[in-house]
Write a structure and sequence with these properties.
The complex is a heterodimer of chains A (340) and B (328). By secondary structure, chain A is of the alpha/beta class. Chain A has 16 helices and 11 strands. A 5-stranded parallel sheet of chain A has the order 2-1-7-8-9. A 4-stranded parallel sheet of chain A has the order 4-3-5-6, with helices on both faces. Chain A has a two-stranded antiparallel sheet with strand order 10-11. In chain A, α1 runs parallel beside α16. In chain B, the strands form 3 sheets. Chain B has a 7-stranded mixed sheet. In chain B, strands 1-2-7-5-6 form a 5-stranded mixed sheet, with helices on one face. In chain B, strands 3-4 form a two-stranded antiparallel sheet. In chain B, a hairpin with a 2-residue loop joins β3 and β4. The chains are: A alpha/beta (340), B alpha+beta (328). The interface between A and B is large, with 42 and 29 residues.
């Protein structure tokens, strides 16, 4: 039996939101603590990646496309919303195929898709690139800021700053990856992993299974979301992913540079690579004074520890990305406040 | 930098309310200051409900309705919420040059049909055609008036202990529109709930003289409207998640996109605040799908709380920004 307080990390931003929406923390026993992890794609995107996207969007005859959540994330100098007001062509899309359609319909311009997210989103974008090649579209580029979840989990499990007793693992990512990769993490770091869905009952079941493992000193990867996740995952999606992308090092907000945690286009697809197409100069990054997003993403701090939270930093006037994103921990804490 | 109007100024959330407040101050008078969707006027001792609304929905045709049907039932519903029987409608079009005449005729046909079903007459109107690019297809404005025969004035009498009754399942209009507009490609039977509520409202008025407030749950959804009422009437509100009806396919589509159905627009749903004694009667008058979903608190003025299915209580805040489909 471990120390009296059990600390479980929900890795995925959608879980963070679901937990806050359901008020789960209020009804759990005091001995179980839920900590939010680095699973919000907008939040973990590094400042330099955001700055690069902003610089590219500011180039002449460029259409920048991205998911809506990115619009208000502050870069070093401005945000997509900011440059759009000043005349840049920035468009919100619901899928990368929509971005490809924009490229096809605007042959005189270069259309860039800012790709963020984990294994859930990247296979669809890989397929979009294959489609661009099939259609011989030459004015479509992807700024790859994709992340892989397992290096981040290893980094957190290894961290000396925080002791995590178990991971509540993301349902959507696991549809693609399957449960196998978690087995290694559970074994190597003696940290049980349970994959769950997003209903209250799914999450409670996940927590229950984690506690059971901890009590029995087991370190396994379990699926508590069998209606969607299998041990082997979606092999076809992973095949498309590895056909187009290769693993690279990537910088995460909060976690820093993690080896083998990102994706870049393989050389044979480099004609679609925005980093190659656009040589831009990045502004010198400035760390926002007082913003604890980095610490929040590692589970070391909660939004309530941040002096800016609810004062200077609100969803209307966000200072850090965790307040901007609809999956961000700060946004979840803000939106679903307890009864005062 | 010069501040500009953004879409958030029209989404039923905080920014829109700030803009409305600025306008209210400019034109301040006793009737306007109630900030109700319809104004209650008194002309020669006749009590009149008067309302106007503009319709800019995209796509123009969607599962369950079109812009024409919406332009009639939206205004009828606003007029009705004052406890009125809607009678007359004005109808004005702004049409972009090049708009299909066939589509126009289709829209006019559904206006005709909806007005007939709801028992209102279109009595005046206007047409403006603007050059290409100056409007997006077609916009419609309607205004409506109705007569109030209810003994007391609806609105402003909400008191602690009043119960809140809803007439059916939420979030259908918003999700049907989103699915159609963004061509998300989800095959579903989700249809807009858009319909005229005047007859249902009349049934409620007939069974109870203790109705203190009625509102249709359009922009901002249930959560947005409750926050407006809590702020406007200076009351605290509590609702119970387990009692709020949402059809499973709507819930699923919301889950997939990361939307909260409580904030999604409706066009055929309304809530009624009523003395606890009469709540069951109202529920019966509203029909099979109705539910008692909450109550007015004696404390926590201007705040709305949700008791979740798990029994936790949390703030149900006003929408800050447009809801966006999530990324993963």
């Amino acid at each position: 039996m471990k120390a009296s307080k059990i600390k479980l990390m929900e890795v995925c931003g959608t879980h963070t939101m679901a937990i806050a929406r359901a008020g789960l923390k209020d009804v759990l026993p005091k001995s179980v603590e839920l900590i939010s992890g680095p699973g919000c794609p907008v939040c973990v995107t590094s400042q330099s990646d955001i700055d690069r996207a902003l610089e590219i969007a500011g180039e002449k005859d460029v259409i920048m496309t991205t998911f809506g959540d990115m619009m208000r994330v502050p870069g070093t100098k401005t945000s997509f919303e900011g440059i759009r007001r000043e005349g840049a062509d920035v468009r919100v899309v619901y899928s990368s195929l929509e971005a490809l359609n924009i490229a096809r319909n605007n042959p005189s311009k270069r259309t860039v898709f800012m790709g963020i997210g984990f294994e859930t989103t990247s296979p669809a974008i890989a397929e979009t690139i294959l489609e661009a090649r099939r259609q011989k579209i030459k004015n479509f580029f992807v700024l790859s800021c994709f992340k892989l979840i397992f290096p981040a989990l290893s980094s957190l499990a290894r961290s000396k700053k925080i002791k995590i007793d178990g991971f509540i693992c993301p349902g959507h990512v696991s549809v693609i990856t399957g449960s196998r990769p978690y087995e290694k993490i559970a074994r190597d770091f003696k940290t049980p992993c349970v994959i769950t869905g997003f209903d209250e009952i799914d999450i409670i079941q996940g927590i229950r299974r984690l506690i059971k493992q901890i009590r029995e000193n087991r370190y396994e990867a379990e699926i508590a979301y069998k209606r969607a996740v299998s041990p082997q995952g979606n092999k076809k999606a992973r095949k498309i992913l590895t056909l187009v992308f290769e693993v690279c090092d990537a910088r995460w907000r909060g976690l820093g540079l993690l080896k083998g945690s990102g994706l870049k286009l393989r050389p044979k697809f480099e004609e679609f690579c925005a980093q190659r197409e656009f040589k831009v100069k990045l502004p010198k990054p400035v760390k926002v004074k007082g913003c604890l997003c980095g610490e929040v993403l590692q589970g070391i701090k909660t939004p309530r520890d941040c002096k800016l939270f609810k004062n200077k930093c609100t969803p209307q006037n966000p200072i850090g990305p965790c307040m901007v994103s609809s999956e961000g921990t700060c946004a979840a804490y803000y939106k679903y406040r307890n009864r005062g | 930098m010069e501040e500009k109007i953004t879409l958030a100024h029209g989404n039923g959330g905080r920014r829109m309310h700030e803009l409305i407040e600025d306008l209210r101050i400019q034109f301040s008078n006793k009737i306007l200051n109630e900030l109700s969707d319809a104004a209650e006027l008194s002309i020669n001792k006749n009590r009149i409900s008067f309302s106007t609304d503009s319709y800019v929905v995209k796509p123009l045709f969607f599962p369950g309705g079109d812009i024409g049907k919406l332009a009639i039932c939206g205004t009828i519903n606003d007029v009705s919420m004052k406890g009125a029987r809607p009678l007359f409608i004005s109808l004005a079009f702004i049409i972009e040059e090049g708009f299909s005449l066939t589509q126009f005729k289709k829209i006019v046909h559904s206006i005709k049909q909806e007005a007939k079903e709801a028992g209102v007459s279109v009595v005046t109107g206007d047409i403006k055609v603007v050059e290409k690019g100056a409007a997006d297809g077609i916009f419609i404005n309607t205004a409506g008036i109705g007569i109030i025969n209810y003994a007391t004035s609806i609105g402003g009498r909400v008191k602690p202990g009043d119960l809140i009754v809803i007439n059916g399942t939420i979030a259908e209009h918003g999700m049907a529109i989103l699915n159609a507009r963004e061509k998300l490609g989800f095959k579903s039977n989700i249809k807009s709930d858009c319909r005229s509520l005047n007859l249902e409202v009349q049934r409620c008025l007939n069974v109870s003289n203790k109705i203190s407030f009625m509102r249709d749950l359009t922009r901002g959804g249930l959560a947005g409207v409750l926050n407006e009422i809590a702020g406007g009437s200076n009351i605290g509100i509590e609702i119970y998640e387990k009692d709020i009806p949402v059809r499973p396919p709507v819930k699923k589509l919301c889950d997939i996109l990361g939307f909260d159905p409580l904030y999604v627009a409706n066009e055929g749903k309304f809530i009624c605040f009523v003395d606890a004694k009469d709540a069951r009667r109202i529920k019966k008058a509203m029909g099979k799908t109705s539910q008692i979903i909450g109550r007015v608190l004696p404390s926590h003025k201007k705040e709305v709380f949700l008791e979740t299915k798990l029994g936790a209580k949390r703030l149900l805040a006003m929408l800050e920004e447009d809801q966006l489909p999530r990324i993963c």
